[in-house]
Write a structure and sequence with these properties.
By secondary structure, the chain is α/β, with parallel strands linked by helices. It has 2 domains: 58 residues, Translation initiation factor 3 (IF-3), N-terminal domain (Ubiquitin-like (UB roll)); 83 residues, Translation Initiation Factor IF3. It is 37% helix and 28% strand. A hairpin with a 2-residue loop joins β6 and β7. The protein is rod-shaped.
Length: 157
């Protein structure tokens, strides 16, 4: 038995541990039942649950959420449309989001797979200052997909 307000932690019988917890007006919580002997802690159970929830919330808040923005091209995307979408991709990468660019082949345009791959590789080359290629162009069904991740921000000392 362990706890903040236990004078002498040690091995006690179950009944004695419950009696001590009752005297201190707190709960006896089993922490690791697989240990030999099982480890119990004398705590206020509601406070214990509250602190656990608080820790979980802090851990969740610290995790970074990955945002993926999609940009769609056709195999014969015009120069102006390409530049317009390129500017959007730059902004997305600067904001820290991943960019999933894909060429959608509609109907018989699937015969222009090489054009789609060239377009995606050109996009990756134009964006190399803003992000790095995470996945090279790959054909999945009627889409050819490339994924770009933002470059890590260098911290100044």
């Amino acid at each position: 038995m362990v706890g903040d307000n236990v004078e002498n932690p040690g091995v006690y019988s179950r009944e004695e541990a419950l009696r001590i917890a009752e005297q201190l007006e707190v709960d006896l919580v089993e922490i690791s039942p697989s240990a030999d002997p099982p480890v119990c802690k004398v705590v206020d159970y509601q406070k214990f649950l509250y602190q656990q929830k608080k820790k979980q919330k802090e851990i969740k808040a610290k995790t970074t959420k990955v945002i993926v923005k999609e940009i769609r091209f056709g195999p014969h995307t015009d120069e102006h449309d390409y530049n317009f979408k390129l500017k959007h991709a730059m902004k997305f990468l600067e904001d820290g989001a991943k960019v999933k660019a894909y060429v959608f082949f509609k109907g018989r345009t699937i015969v222009y797979k090489e054009d789609g791959e060239i377009l995606l590789l050109r996009l990756a080359q134009d964006l190399e200052d803003y992000g790095k290629v995470e996945q090279l162009p790959r054909l999945e069904g009627k889409r050819m997909i490339i994924i770009l991740a933002p470059k890590p921000v260098k911290k100044k000392n």
